[in-house]
Design a protein that fits this description.
By secondary structure, the protein is of the alpha+beta class. Helix content is 45%, strand content 11%. It contains 3 helices and 2 strands. It has helices at residues 32-40, 45-53, 57-70, and strands at residues 8-11, 26-29. The protein has a two-stranded parallel ribbon with strand order 1-2. The chain starts with 7 loop residues before the first strand and ends with a helix.
Length: 71
């Protein structure tokens, strides 16, 4: 979603929470009523895309290798 500029609306306690920077690349909700409000909120698609770039597979692989080397 983030890579296409679409915000992530994640349920509190789900894995999607890790991808969200509240009010910038999406939001976290705990109750259905909150989700209804969030759907109507506008998010900057460029900020969503920028957040997605932090999950580049090459960067993630490099971080995993550094972590493994530490042990």
């Amino acid at each position: 979603a983030l890579a296409s500029g679409t915000p992530v609306l994640a349920y509190k306690g789900s894995g999607g929470v890790l991808e969200v920077i509240d009010s910038e690349s999406g939001a976290v909700f705990g109750e259905p009523v909150e989700l209804v409000e969030l759907v109507e909120k506008e998010f900057d698609p460029w900020k969503c895309r920028k957040r997605a770039e932090k999950f580049n597979y090459l960067e993630m692989a490099k971080k995993y290798l550094e972590l493994l080397k530490a042990y």
